[in-house]
Amino acid sequence: MAETLKKRSEVEEKLKWDTSLIFKTKEDMLAELDRMKRLSADIEKEYKGQLSDKDKINACLDKYNEFLIGVDRVSNYTSLNLSVDYTDAEMNKLDGFVTGEYMKELARLSFIDSELAELPENVLKEAIDSATIGKNYLKDVLRFKPHMLNAESEKVMASLGEVFSAPYQMYEQTKLADIKFPDFEVNGKKYPLGYSLFEDDYEYEEDTEVRRAAFKAFSDKLGEYKYTTAGQYGAKVRSEKLISELRHFDSVFDHLLFNQKVTREMYDRQIDLIMDKLAPHMRKFARLIKKAHNLDKMTYADLKLPLDPEYNPKVTIEKSKEYILDGLSIMGPEYQEILKRAYDERWIDFAQNIGKSTGGFCASPYQRGAFILLSWNERMSDVFTLAHELGHAGHFCSCQQHQSYFDNECSQYVVEAPSTINELIMAEYLKEQNKDDKRFRRWVLASQISNTYYHNFVTHLLEAAYQREVYKRVDKGEAVPCETLCEIFRGVLEKFWGDEVELTDGCELTWMRQPHYYMGLYSYSYSASLTVATQVMKRIRREGAPAVEDWKKTLAAGGSVDPVEFAKMAGVDVTTDAALLDTIDYIGSIIDEIETLM
Ligand SMILES: [Zn+2]
């Protein structure tokens, strides 16, 4: 069972990531911040009020690209160091200072977007034709033109950026610094509790009494903060609605989907089809878990139980490296090189300590490697998480090698495809390694469902279904108090699980647990990305090398193409229901095979 958490300073160096890969020292980072401030002042002096012909525009964008790279590295440096220990007062202060400084500079340079947006279309088109790195950036300006405000208002909006992101900051502080979970007791034995301990450990705990007691203790404590959290969340969604109105979008959905380059139809399809067609398969899976564990009943607190717990082998960090390098070797030597660097240069934070953000995530400061935050529990399932995060690393390393900073960001609709495909490839590899071992095969199939598909097609999708209901109300100008949020979440769970799962008290608070709600319409996109990933993985299995080549080109293209084009480059059509329906069938077939193997 879990030990009491260490302080960050007590953690071994080799378990921590090495942010000196971004800047050797804090002083170097501050020097870069100063350089960016000077660059920003130069850009203002040279180009403000001057962006009227294609040459000036493109010269300005070249410098702006350089500025954004600097800011990207500086902001990553402090936020990454903070994310591993929110109780670090000095880092909190530094991050606050740095954020304040570069936000001011971003506001200073907001004239670029407003001046560009005010240019006549023909000038913009000329600039697009002669652009080197700014082509897609300018195309986006043209697309956004109808939603731009006048220069003064844009400046106000930009300088309020920190305020708009305040609810998210407060959410993280409440969640990671304020809430102190008490120990809970089962049969006279005390167990420590924490966010990460609960989500990474107790939800998978085989002892039913401990697992359900942990859920209760966790939910009870969470419940004490529900009004604060609802207030933070309410402020966030109302500000999004407000901005969507100021910018003349027809709805808050159109506003939030705009940057993703996704149609409302593509968005609704994911939620509607999965709520309807995947639910029967998942109820069957819940029945299989109940049977495997001989449970009296299937409750919300039991859903994460592994199907075959005796078979969740322990894995050391060293062994995980072997699995990763071997399992993903199908991606070729360049990709292999990135994976090796991740281990050798310490891109990964394996530590468990007080104040650390709940993982996992991967941040990729421009051309400075990648930083993967994990809560490593030495389980085989962690290898899948690692393969996932390394998928992001591989994607952005490849993309940043070929694209400017402007084109390095990718639509959320596909951003999880390079990561989830690694989980699928890893699963295929493990199945092949152990061809005659039926029980192992069943274990891999079950973890495909309980990790890969459950996470993306169930956990996040149910959040997405909830979120859609919240935004529908916000769009109509209705308030969304705490009670409404709980009611909506419970309703979504009832619809999906039917009578198959008893909805334990506390399940309605699940909306408090995800930071994704502070990032717009993010949750649904996991399933969209995994749909693309599933189809590409199936194609790689079917066709081999040509499919891998197409996929590598797609990764390198990054944000220079929209999601429909991205999928198309990899051989997948996301403009109809077909790819998603086929993916749901695939999930169903895995569950059927598990049943046969039981
Ligand atoms: Zn991811």
List strands and helices in order, with pairings.
Layout (H helix, E strand, L loop, with lengths): L25 H22 L6 H30 L5 H20 L1 H9 L2 H10 L4 H10 L6 H9 L1 H4 L1 H13 L5 E3 L2 E3 L3 H6 L7 H16 L2 H21 L5 H7 L5 H29 L24 H11 L5 H12 L3 E2 L11 E3 L7 E3 L6 H23 L9 H4 L1 H17 L4 H38 L6 H16 L27 H19 L1 H13 L5 H7 L8 H20 L1
Parallel strand pairs: 3-5
Antiparallel strand pairs: 1-2, 4-5
Zinc ion binds next to helix 17.
Description:
This protein is an all-alpha fold. The strands form 2 sheets. The chain has a 3-stranded mixed beta sheet with strand order 3-5-4, with helices on one face. The chain has a two-stranded antiparallel sheet with strand order 1-2. Helix 22 packs across helix 25. The longest helix has 38 residues. The two termini are 28 Å apart. Bound molecules: zinc ion. Zinc ion binds next to helix 17. The site of zinc ion has 4 residues, from helix 17.
List keywords for this structure.
2% strand, single chain, two-stranded antiparallel ribbon, globular, binds zinc ion, three-stranded mixed β-sheet, 598 residues
- Approximate shape: globular
Bound ligands, each once? zinc ion
How many strands, which pairing sense, and closed or not: the largest β-sheet? 3 strands, mixed
Task: Enumerate the strands of the largest sheet in spatial order, edge to edge or round the barrel.
Answer: 3-5-4
* Strand segment count: 5
Q: How far from one another are the termini?
A: 28 Å
Unreliable stretches (pLDDT < 50, length at least 5) are none
Beta strand %: under 5%
The percent range for helix content is 55-70%
Report the structural category: mainly alpha
> What is the average of the pLDDT values?
93
- The helix tally amounts to 25
SSE order? HHHHHHHHHEEHHHHHHHEEEHHHHHHHHH
Overall radius of gyration: 24 Å
